Structures are given as C-alpha cells and as structure tokens.
Give the backbone structure.
Amino acid sequence: MNQIARAPSGCRVGASHHRSKLTSEQVAEIRAIYETGGKGYGFLAEVYKCGASTVRDIVQYRTRFAG
C-alpha cells in the first residue's frame, strides 16, 4: 500500500496531494537536469507541462522538499 505523504498539519503534500501534476520522480529529474546546467526554467516547463515558476520553485526547494 502506498504511503500518503503528509505535512505536520495533516495536509497531503508532494505527489500524494490531489492537485499534484508532477510525480516525485519527475521532480528529481527536473532538479538533476537543472543542476547539470543543461536547461533553463522555460525549457523544463515545456517538457514537463507545467509553469516556469513551478520549475523555479522546485529547483530552489521552495516546494516539493522531499520529492
């Protein structure tokens, strides 16, 4: 059975959140690609079909801390 990730407040977080568009694997891929210096926010946003600000927040660890 899959474990549902929850914040200390009890709210769902990460890929288990009902509005999540990216899996934890995709978040790890985005960080890895960005950290190698290969691609920017805009390119990654197009590839993963999300906003550039979402990619920025992921690579700067503003969101998806564990994923």
Summary: The two ends are 19 Å apart (CA to CA). Residues 22-59 form one domain. The chain has three helices and no strands.
